[in-house]
Design brief:
By secondary structure, the protein is an alpha/beta fold. The chain contains 16 helices and 20 strands. It has helices at 22-33, 50-53, 74-79, 89-102, 192-204, 228-236, 238-245, 266-279, 295-312, 316-322, 339-342, 389-392, 404-407, 441-462, 471-486, 516-528, and strands at residues 11-18, 38-41, 109-110, 115-121, 126-131, 136-144, 167-169, 184-188, 207-212, 218-220, 334-336, 348-352, 360-362, 365-368, 371-374, 377-380, 395-397, 426-428, 467-469, 534-536. The mean pLDDT is 97. The structure holds NADP nicotinamide-adenine-dinucleotide phosphate.
Length: 537
């Protein structure tokens, strides 16, 4: 179709979803169920989102596989069988593909389609989205399902472009894999992605130099193949297990104990830490309820992990540098397979850049401490412009042409992490202001998608053409979220939760920390009250 002025006409839909990760896929399924004509626009070449892009060696989810999966369809839940306690990226991507096939999702997804602008047309109360290639799509409703950790953060090191070898970002790993055998490899960063990839890279590379700005706490994964009997038991009890997970603050069925670390005698405390360390994974921080609220309590867990690191790493100076000094759990806790022990290998070297930052990237390596560390390849494990980055990289303009970037100049403001005042008919799945990254993403995604789908069904029944969060409701939610965050030690360090990893980003604790159960209750109450806090036309 072509308009008289030579510009191609926009394609019309009831709803547009941006992103075909787990959020966009399920959103499409629900909107189809409502009979809405829906298109999904996806920049990547296939489904999977995070798991499509993050193909770095060792990539694995640190939520147990039987929990990191959809629960909306009982048959799907029964027919898919996870093979490992923590699924690796290829298996999770295979699962995403299975879901796409099973529900025939691809016919409504446009791959290789990166949205550049999204503009609200006030007269028509419709969104118009345009890609860099000039394709245009219009719909009454628009759902941004962009992922919380999808906009790569690539620090602007001086001389970055001068490097003569290949460079890779963990979140944009080449699909064909990378052969680093016999190479000298520099890794910049020691967050979750680095901690997973370093042990694997160290086995492959001739020499590995790790540049660490902040040491991180990591708990062993003790990953293993799943026993068929365990899988059968989980499948038999899925409804009960899923329901129990929804009562947990993180939406993960973990062993949370309502006991104070400080009130527990030292030997008992130590026994419990040992038990958790031997069990492995994120449940480590669930052993005492005051670990993320009281510094003295936190120190008991931090000291325990620091002692473990000292016991694993042979060289005392390397062990000292690897031992984190900050609050445990303030930055996202990592889960690893052999991370600290990797530094005992003769081909692995740690360069501490906490006090003297990386000076530059040179043609032949990385400059730090006044010298050059030679490298044939550089891996940037430098994370993401989290939660807001993917939204702000699209030029989103709401009522009155107001840009989202301007509305969020002082940090993101949302009503429930689902909608933004001034941006009618627009939804964000697991947006800032929702529990999102502090929880198991799959159930949080499903809760948001269900809420949005139910809301759109209600809007249709009411004949509504425009729905928008009231600024007062948004202000109240932002204030509540910020007050809640201030109670937790998690808001006290330079983490990506507060945007500290991206120079110039406003420092605001972005996810909602009040726990999934309280959050779901609030969302349900808003819906039950006929969408309280929204102006509906
Ligand atoms: P990240 O946690 O933000 O880590 C980035 C690393 O790069 C940090 O060590 C950071 O140091 C360093 N860095 C950034 N800019 C730097 C600079 N200019 N100079 C030197 N170092 C610099 O990113 P990520 O490891 O990709 O993980 C992000 C999140 O994704 C995780 O927290 C987790 O939520 C999720 N994730 C999960 C899994 C899993 O399920 N197992 C795996 C990977 C990622 P600073 O700490 O000093 O900023």
């Amino acid at each position: 179709m072509a308009k008289g002025n030579g510009e191609s006409a926009a394609e019309e839909f009831d709803a547009i979803v941006v992103g075909a990760g787990f959020a966009g896929m399920y959103m499409l399924h629900r909107l189809r169920g409502l009979g809405m004509r829906t298109v999904v626009l996806e920049a990547g070449g296939d489904v999977g989102g995070t798991w499509y892009w993050n193909r770095y060696p060792g990539a694995r989810c640190d939520v147990e596989s039987v929990q990191y999966s959809y629960q909306f369809d009982a048959a799907l839940q029964q027919e898919w069988t996870w093979t490992e306690r923590y699924a690796g990226q290829p298996e999770i991507l295979a699962y995403a593909n299975h879901v796409a096939d099973r529900f025939d999702l691809r016919r409504d997804i446009r791959f290789g389609t990166r949205v550049a602008t999204a503009v609200f047309d006030e007269a028509e109360a419709r969104w118009e989205l345009e890609t860099g290639a000039g394709e245009r799509f219009r719909a009454r409703w628009c759902v941004m399902a962009l992922g919380c950790l999808s906009a790569a953060n690539l620090p602007d090191f001086e001389g970055r472009e001068s490097f003569e070898g290949p460079t890779y970002h963990t979140g944009r790993w080449p699909h064909g894999g990378v052969d680093l055998a016999g190479k000298r490899v520099a890794v910049i960063g020691t967050g979750s992605s680095a901690i997973q990839s370093i042990p694997v890279l160290a086995r492959e590379a001739r020499h590995l130099t790790v540049f660490q700005r902040t040491a991180n706490y990591s708990i062993p994964a003790h990953n293993r193949p799943l026993e068929p009997e365990f899988v059968a038991e989980v499948k038999a009890r899925y409804p009960e297990l899923r329901a129990r997970a929804r009562t947990m603050p993180s939406g993960i069925d973990l062993d949370y104990r309502p006991l104070s670390a400080l009130a527990t005698p030292e030997d008992e405390r130590r026994t419990e830490f040992e038990r958790r360390w031997a069990h492995g994974g994120l449940s480590f921080l669930g052993c005492f309820s005051d670990l993320l609220f009281e510094e003295d309590a936190n120190r008991t867990a931090a000291d325990f992990v620091r002692a473990k690191i000292a016991g694993i790493v042979d060289d005392p100076e390397t062990a000292r540098l690897l031992a984190p000094t900050n609050i445990i759990g303030c930055k996202r806790l990592c889960v690893d397979t052999g991370y600290y022990a990797t530094f005992n290998r003769p081909n692995v070297e740690l360069v501490d850049v906490s006090e003297r930052p990386i000076e530059a990237i040179a043609p032949g390596g990385v400059r730090a401490h006044g010298r050059e560390w030679p490298a044939d390849a550089i891996v940037f494990a430098t994370g993401f412009d989290a939660m807001t980055g993917a939204l702000e990289r699209i030029d989103i303009r709401g009522a009155g042409g107001r840009r989202l970037r301007d509305a969020w100049a002082e940090g993101p403001r949302t009503y429930l992490g689902l909608t933004v005042a001034g941006f009618p008919n627009l939804f964000t799945v697991t947006g800032p202001g929702s529990p999102s990254v502090l929880t198991n993403m799959l159930p949080s995604i499903e809760q948001h998608v269900d809420w949005i789908a139910d809301c759109l069904a209600a809007m249709r029944d009411r004949g509504a053409r425009r729905m928008e969060a009231e600024p007062e409701a948004q202000d109240a939610w932002v204030e509540h979220a910020s007050e809640t965050a201030s109670l937790s030690l998690r808001s006290t360090c330079s983490s990506w939760y507060i945007g500290a990893n991206v120079p110039g980003k406003p420092r605001v604790f972005m996810p909602y920390i009040g726990g999934l159960p309280a959050y779901i209750e609030k969302c349900d109450a808003v819906a039950a009250a006929g969408y309280g806090g929204f102006r509906i036309e």
